[in-house]
């Protein structure tokens, strides 16, 4: 689809000016930017709150009785769309300060029918988790999103929700958005094996299972992020997790709990920290500190991989909050070498392969990243988009089935213009590459960065990044 047509479906977006003030932009205007070879990056930064935890805090707060106070919420577009949807479903959702929010929920199965379609913009997580939550209330709601989200698979969510008694109507090819979901009057608990490792599928089933009597069980062959399970427990539900096979898990939720509102402190997002982290590794002489980064072991695959590549990443101030551990990381410019990344590591770093590919391009030797089929169904086809981002900047890269192979030469020629395909992580990865490439790297549109990391450009500038 031509870009202009894709953009026509997107609503106006909230984004930030260079100074960090919030402004409303017209989504039909792409905002290009280029990154230049920069001097050593220095300083301390706290990237915004974790996106996965932020969505879940709003959704569980909306399903709980009483007050949920959230501090450190990510105020990116994806999460703001979830906040709007929870309001439309009857919860009281208020911003009480800078990244401070308060939710008064309606109780499990207590959602009211929304008067307008729920528009999740660019966000798979917000949309798919909300579908699960709505499937357990006897209401009808329409789900929609921008052109990127409309192109992403939804049968993976609809299939288990229909087994639980929900009814879904979509006139789009493959059951995609927009779709209308009728929640189940008497939801059934199920045992469900996820067809691919996906926290979004697992969470949708568990959230629908809240309204079902008895035990809802999800079995995943490879463990995906467990924030829903941890937060459900924090809000008073009974969730039992057991190992399943070599890398999997079996998760059982006891239905019809009374969820009670609870305080949530959102740690900094490791998937956002990945960008300044890789930037500091590839810009020679850099020395930065990233604070409060969540270190849930199901999210730390990138750090393990970068360390195998020879990265200097030191952890300190390790602590935990509301079931989620966090730490500070000192990251110094490092000589990296190519490595092989095994497929079973993919769920713990699924959103980080794009920026890992950038690190691999600056490494010496070949990096092979295996088992990346899920990258094809994200905001863009990230396997193709990552290969294109590298190729247009003179890096030798190959896609072999589900594997991405990057030939690292210790330096990147640069000079290319990268197509972002409505994908925030392509835009940020390309800009990171430009900070150390021989010639500037340009991206055609930075607008979608506001979905997950609205402060990316000003924060990177404060560390010494040169954008222009
Ligand atoms: O549950 C979540 O918060 C997420 C799960 C992942 O998606 P999948 O469940 O599709 O792997 C990830 O890519 C996404 O950014 C956030
Ligand atoms: C895949 C992502 O998010 P979502 O699925 O929520 O759109 C992401 O943030 O990289």
Automatic annotation (TrEMBL):
The keyword Mitochondrion does not apply. Residues 1-48 are annotated as: Disordered. Its EC number is 2.5.1.19. One of its GO terms (molecular function) is 3-phosphoshikimate 1-carboxyvinyltransferase activity. Keywords: Amino-acid biosynthesis, Aromatic amino acid biosynthesis, Cytoplasm, Transferase. Residues 37-458 form the Enolpyruvate transferase domain. HAMAP family: EPSP_synth. This is 3-phosphoshikimate 1-carboxyvinyltransferase.
